[in-house]
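Quick review question:
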């Protein structure tokens, strides 16, 4: 196999090629180990990935950037924090991704039993949703711990169809085929746990129409809400981590255009084999109110932001914060900007 010609130099091409044995052999082997040993090796792998700038997104473009941008984001969110603390959070960010990838391999093998020690009681939240009489629920998530585990657990706890929005970026020609296959395998196995729901690429107009129909039928749709609006694309000005920022419009637009409620879901790390999943109270967006002042929108983003502030190293999309420009919060949609 040859590395993409678009990579800047031979060093970048050699680094790209290493993903083959990493994702094709090492991770699958780790997933077959006893759980404790697998996680210990995952932590070491994450530490090395941090040191060498080996996130698959970095390797796909041949440039180290995530560590530096993550540190800058933490510094902006927590001014005055000691440099060593920020460095530790950056390392933890890579370790969190490494653990998520190990868990992805275990999902693909069918050996990750989410919420093995009991599942969350979401009956009260679902009763609240039914009482609103608004159809389905738009569930906001962040790239925090393992979002896919939360989606599978949400389906198990509620018995409802769960649809999960995903991006086609992992099929880009510069992404190593072993990485693309890693995503395909875990999604294929996880789909069986979504009660007849599934995964839907957000770039597809056909897919968006499917999500609208699902919400109107009373299904749950999970959207990653911590992404900035793509350059030149419409976004929403929402309260995010202490500022109003321009974020991707998907979650808010789905709720507003279908008249459905919104809530936020947070998944915390396993302790003694037990995952924890929490869902905020479903709230209806208010008509004719700017997104930046809507109580339902604000409550959902605040739930996610509070989890991140409480454990910043577990948030592995921090490097995207600088791509979400500030806005005044009093208007509606705006445009995303480049870095």
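Suggested answer, residue by residue:
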């Amino acid at each position: 196999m040859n590395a993409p010609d678009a990579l800047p130099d031979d060093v970048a091409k050699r680094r790209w090629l290493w993903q083959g044995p990493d994702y094709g052999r090492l991770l699958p082997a780790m997933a077959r180990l006893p759980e404790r040993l697998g996680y210990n090796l995952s932590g070491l792998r994450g530490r090395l990935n941090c040191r060498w700038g080996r996130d698959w997104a970095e390797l796909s473009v041949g440039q180290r950037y995530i560590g530096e941008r993550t540190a800058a984001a933490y510094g902006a969110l927590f001014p005055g924090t000691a440099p060593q603390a920020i460095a530790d959070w950056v390392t933890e960010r890579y370790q969190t991704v490494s653990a998520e990838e190990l868990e992805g391999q275990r999902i693909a093998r069918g050996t990750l039993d989410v919420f093995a020690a009991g599942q969350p009681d979401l009956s009260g939240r679902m009763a609240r949703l039914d009482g609103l009489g608004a159809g389905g629920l738009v569930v906001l998530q962040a790239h925090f711990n393992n979002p896919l585990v939360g989606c599978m657990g949400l389906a198990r706890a509620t018995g409802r169809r769960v649809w999960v929005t995903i991006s086609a970026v992992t099929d880009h020609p510069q992404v190593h085929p072993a990485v693309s296959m890693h995503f395909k395998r875990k999604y294929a196995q996880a789909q069986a746990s979504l009660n007849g729901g599934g995964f839907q690429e957000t770039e597809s107009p056909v897919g968006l129409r499917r999500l609208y129909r699902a919400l109107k039928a009373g299904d749950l749709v999970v959207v990653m809400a911590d992404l900035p609006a793509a350059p030149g694309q419409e976004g929403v000005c929402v309260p995010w981590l202490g500022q109003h920022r321009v974020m991707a419009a998907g979650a808010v637009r789905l709720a507003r255009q279908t008249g459905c409620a919104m809530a936020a879901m947070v998944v915390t790390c396993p302790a003694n084999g037990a995952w924890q999943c929490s869902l905020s109270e479903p709230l209806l967006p208010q008509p004719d109110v700017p997104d930046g002042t809507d109580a339902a929108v604000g409550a959902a983003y605040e739930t996610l932001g509070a989890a991140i502030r409480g454990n910043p190293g577990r948030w592995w999309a921090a490097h995207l914060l600088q791509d979400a420009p500030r806005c005044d919060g009093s208007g509606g949609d705006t445009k995303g900007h480049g870095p």
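Why it works: The chain has a mean pLDDT of 92. The chain has twelve helices and nine strands.
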